Amino acid sequence: MILAPTRELATQIAATLQPLADAYKLRSMTIFGGVSQNRQVEALRNGVDIIVATPGRLEDLMKQGLVHLDSVQITVLDEADHMADLGFLPGVTRILTATPRNGQRMLFSATLDNGVDKLVAKFLHNEILHSVDEANSPVVQMTHHVFEVEDAEVKKVLIETLASGTGRRILFMRTKHHAKKLAKLLTDKGIPAVDLHGNLSQPQRDRNLAAFSSGAVRVLVATDVAARGVHVDDVELVIHVDPPTEHKAYLHRSGRTARAGSAGDVVTICLPAQKKDLRDLLRKAGITVTPEAVTPKSASVTALVGDVAEYVKPAPRVAPQQQPRGTSTGANAQRKRANRDRSGRPISENKVAERSGQSNNNFRGARNAQPTRSIRPQGR
């Protein structure tokens, strides 16, 4: 069992495992939310050897009695620190508790703080620690730039300029709304872009990520959901359109470039009011960089853009079709129509009463109103 914090990471782990599983004739499957559980349940009932899962959906299936972990021999927890950041550790703890105590457990994490150390103490006994590098250390092949701009208008043009190159680039935004808005803006400017954030359905995420990975579009506008677990080769430029609030997020975002030994550039766009916070963030991240005041036509900007890609005419947007307004035949609709004049305006209450042959006093409980008498057939 392999646990991953996001659907994207779970999908990519499963794709990497699939050829190995096929070679050993092992059945594997992916479990995550955002889609119907029916296919996942069907696969579980047929029996699987390997599952790659996100904690939320896996726990849902456990509560329904559809999956049992008492025979799991090996448990892998990937990006445990990101699990902690997302608040998944209580669920992860319950899941690990359901696995056999004598099974093998492996935990991968950039840091061992924020509750990850408690997981290690509870579930990994006599553990062997493998440290690849200093926690959160910046990549040597990565070149960092801070571009200071005078106002939001200059920033807007600078973003379009940096996105206009021929290579892949990822632009990071702080909110889902702004990510969606920027992707649309760039596409309208002839720079094909897709967005990636938590408001998208799983099919939309898969479709947008596939378009970026295949090169159908060269710009991905994302929130921090894509800072982890999205592994796309040859991303030459990462742009922090909105600087993150913490240094770990800066390093994880920046880590989408300069992968597998290749070089890459990271640009942070800074407005005057952001200078102090950005300086503190870079210091905590261990990044030494001299800020540079730029315009979209500065030589350093032009050098990063490189060759400008050809203009791509945006596809025409299809306006949503309005449903034809027919005449409802329901009783409620008929009553409403009966209480309107020929122009469609409401008829006053008195006139409604006149049309129905009743006095308005009977509805209002007037003082002189006589109580109505029920008429009973004789002999009863």
TrEMBL record:
Gene Ontology CC annotations of this record: cytosol
Lineage, uppermost ranks: unclassified sequences, metagenomes, ecological metagenomes
Biased composition annotated in UniProt, kind: Low complexity: 315-325
Name by which UniProt lists this protein: Unannotated protein
Location of the Helicase ATP-binding domain: 1-130
Entries under Pfam families matching the protein: DEAD (PF00270), Helicase_C (PF00271)
Keywords: ATP-binding, Helicase, Hydrolase, Nucleotide-binding
Keyword set includes Hydrolase: yes
Record flagged with keyword Cell division: no
Origin species: freshwater metagenome
Biased composition range(s): Polar residues: 356-380
Annotated spans, Disordered: 315-380
Any one Gene Ontology molecular-function term assigned to this protein's record: ATP binding
Domain Helicase C-terminal: 153-302
InterPro entries, per the entry: DEAD/DEAH_box_helicase_dom, DEAD/DEAH_RhlB, DEAD_box_RNA_helicase, Helicase_ATP-bd, Helicase_C-like, P-loop_NTPase
